[in-house]
Amino acid sequence: MKIIFHGAAQEVTGSCYQIITNSGSQFLVDCGLFQGDPNLEKINYKDFDFNPKNIQALFLTHSHLDHSGLLPKLYRQGFRGKIFSTRPTRDICKLLFEDAANLILDKYFKTGERPIYELEDAMNCVSLFETVEYGELKEFDSVKFRFNDAGHILGSAAIEIFIENKKMVFSGDLGNYPSPILKMPDIIKEANYVFIESTYGGITHESKEIRLKKLKQAVFNVFNKESTLLIPSFALERTQEIMYELNNMVEHGEIVPLPVFIDSPLANKITGVFKNYEYLYDKETMSIIKSGDDIFDFQGLVMTNTVDESKRINSVKGPKIVIAGSGMCTGGRITKHLKQYIEDPKNFLIFVGYQAIGTLGRKIFDGEKIVEIEDREFNVNLTVDAIGGYSAHADEPQTISWLSNFDKNMLEEVIVIHGEKEKGDALAKAIKNNFGFKTFQPKIGDELNIN
């Protein structure tokens, strides 16, 4: 049996791992978009390095597009196997695929760039999903598998795969705990091979107390200066977490209510999905809901959907908070707001998620003083900060803690994936120092032979 690494190998995005058994069966774990670096994004337009028609099933760790975003393209090129996922992952993918297909079509009309898939492919792809519950041991074509709560986003999973007398565990993206709303990642104790993400190798996140303090201080700052706070946020999970935190602050009288605009139609739809799966929330969140508090509604909250509603935000004088996508400032409504507010030193910008190399968000985060937004240069005069504690990814200590549960006599190798090379190097070193496990940090195109 062998594993071929088609993405997220010494890179953060493009998660895709092909399993080829000794009997010739073929499976995939994830099939994600490459994002950020324009050179990497070109890979999205190339044919797959395998025949999609030969893939019998795909195991999807979660709905983030860097893990799921090329599934409609996979369908377009002939894949008709099963896609195993949790129910929230399926429901969110349906929304994300539809949104992405419309953006791709819009780009085609503007630039003539050929679409990698169309809306029909996206919707037909969703029909291939077969959902599973956390903890269920399932079987398909002599392969057994089990999805475990990864605590990363709603529906995310670390997947156990039992195949040809070997057990592999794909961590997907592990959650940064304790986090608002979601439970801690499930513990897994046995595996021969663990495929572990390394997004934050070498990094320790801020504590829950510090991240709350920083967010509260940001609200105070914008209130005192009667200015605007911009929060570029992913429509999935991060927006809902920030809403949860602001709701708690308002409900407990910790901040004065002020206008908070969720300027993302997609985020508003995904918030609706969250409300369908309250049984997956952690005990603290369930306790708040049972007390009668709607965690996604508070005084001052405005959820905008239409373009006209979005434009009207500019007519509202500060203090105000604008939460909009995309999380890395690569498009979406946040770019419009940046053009409006980036050159005023009274304003604030806070990053609450990972900024990939090559993105506008990364350039601003790295301190560039002049940036290009929609073919025009702007001076970065507002105050820029980041709250690392809101990352949905586990940091290095959390990852090491999760790995510490595995039977050290059974585990043969840890494969370090889903991280920039230096982050992977750091995590691999920590794994060796803590456990002495053999590690492998593959590049795209590498193969791992398993006997």
Overview features:
451 residues, alpha/beta, Metallo-beta-lactamase, Chain A, Rossmann fold, 7-stranded mixed sheet, 22% strand, globular
Q: Describe it for me?
A:
The protein contains 14 helices and 22 strands. With 451 residues, the protein is of the alpha/beta class. Helix 4 packs antiparallel against helix 5 and helix 4 runs antiparallel to helix 8. The protein starts with a strand and ends with a strand. The mean pLDDT is 95.
* Spatial sequence of strands, sheet with the most strands: 6-5-4-3-2-1-22
Question: What shape does the CA trace take?
Answer: globular
Q: Which second-level CATH architecture of the largest domain applies?
A: 4-Layer Sandwich
Structural class: alpha/beta
Total domain count: 2
Uncertain stretches of 5 or more adjacent residues? none
The major pleated sheet works out as: 7 strands, mixed
- Total beta strand runs: 22
Put simply, the count of helices is 14
Superfamily (CATH H level) name of the largest domain:
Ribonuclease Z/Hydroxyacylglutathione hydrolase-like
Radius of gyration: 22 Å
* CA distance, first residue to last residue: 7 Å
| Proportion of beta-strand residues | 15-25%
- Could you tell me the mean pLDDT? 95
Q: What is the third-level CATH name, the topology of the largest domain?
A: Metallo-beta-lactamase, Chain A
The CATH C-level class name of the largest domain: Alpha Beta
Helix content: 25-40%
